[in-house]
Every structure is written in structure tokens, then in C-alpha cells.
Amino acid sequence: MRLRLKDLNKIAGDTPDVKGILTEVVGHRKHWFLNKFIFGISIRKAMTIIKNGRNLDISKLRLHKDCTISLPANIDNITFRAMIELQSIIGNSNEDSDPVEVMSSVIAITCFSENIQDYYDSEIVEFKEFKERVLNEPMEHMIGLYNFICETTMESQLEWKKRFMSVEVKNPDTKKAGIHRMQQFNILMTLKTLCADFNCSYDEAWQMSYALTQTNSYAKATYDHIHENLRILKEHKMKAERLSKRS
Fold first, then answer.
1. pTM of the predicted protein model
2. Tell me: the pLDDT tens digits for 89-113?
3. What are phi and psi of 209, to 5 degrees?
4. Which end of the chain is more exposed for a tag (fewer CB within 10 A), N or C?
5. 188 touches 80 (CB < 8 A)
């Protein structure tokens, strides 16, 4: 008898859904032969469950040893498509978002390939069934899992950002020309690059691990960075030679 992730909204807010907890969690059923004494016991159980649930500090919940949903060994092991959808949901969630929908989606996207099948697609029946399984898992386990996923996703984004910034080719002319407007096409450009580099289809590119797609992009960025540095050194050398000839 414990709260499931989908019960979170029933205990949140100013007015908890006592009836919902009573019937769906405690399992109380209204029958003519159940007297007031038994009903009173059920009510007290429901109120205790609600009180304990509302007293939880969800921000401090972490991975639970009894959690039955398996995590990928590394967040970057999930597919490129899964990571794009994951970052979108986390980035677009706000105080108006349904927390149960956000948490169940984040967990399902991250853990689908590890628990169900390698091929990731959030539109297939298997994914929807897995998401429903997540909703019926213990609330504490799923919130802890959600917190861990958000933390590791943020760490991954920061780590990749640092790597790409270290090899960024800084050119003021490109900024003036509006290079930032190309960012909206980053996903499409990445897919096209993967298809060309690995001789694969768009669908196969979507299913590549995020680590592979980022490593491939990072390698290209590193090459461009080295090439730009060589160009600058060559220009400086030629300039120095011209100055020495004049003197």
C-alpha cells in the first residue's frame, strides 16, 4: 500500500484527493456489509498516506536501491533522438507543467532502450506501455530517478559545452553575419552530417547514441579549430616576412 507516481497530483495542492487515495491506493470499496468501523480505518490509512506523501522533500529524493526501472550506464548512451526529446521536455517544463506528465516522460525517454528495446521511438505502442508502467511505479522511486536523470543530463550538457567552447572558432564576422540564426537548423545539420559520415539513413542516424553524435561533431570542431589556428599562424608568418623584407 504505497503511493505511485500517478498519485502525486492527488496529494499535491491545497485540497488532496482523499477519495482517490481511499479507493485507488488503500483499496477501499463501498459495500453494504462494510460498517462504519472498517470505513474509519480506511479513512485513517488514507490520511496517513497523504500526510506522509506531502511531508516528503522531493528535491532530496535520489536513486532507490529497490527501483525496478534500469538506467543506462551513462546518460550519453541513449539515442540521439531520445536525448533531443529529453532536453526539450526538461528545458520547456515550468510551474504550469503537469509534474506527473513531465516526470513520467523524462523517465520513459531515458530508460526505454535499457528496459524494453534498443530501437527508440516515443510514438510506438511499446513506449506508451512502458510509460504507463513508470506511472504505476512507487512515487518515491520515480521522483528519485527523475532527479538523478535531470542532474546527469545537466552535467552532460555542461561537459559538452565546455568541450565545444575549447575548440570554438571565434570570428567576429560570422556573428555580424547572423551565424546564430543557423542554430535552429543544428539538429537537421547534425543528421545530414551523420548520414554522410557513416553512410546511413536518417532513421539510423536518429538511433545512434548521443555520445557518438557529439564525439563526431566534436572531432569536426577540433579539426576546424586546428585548421583556423594554422591559418592564423601562416598569416602572421607571412606578415612577419613582409615586414623583414621592407626593413
1. 0.83
2. 999 999 889 999 999 999 999 999 9
3. -65, 150
4. C
5. no
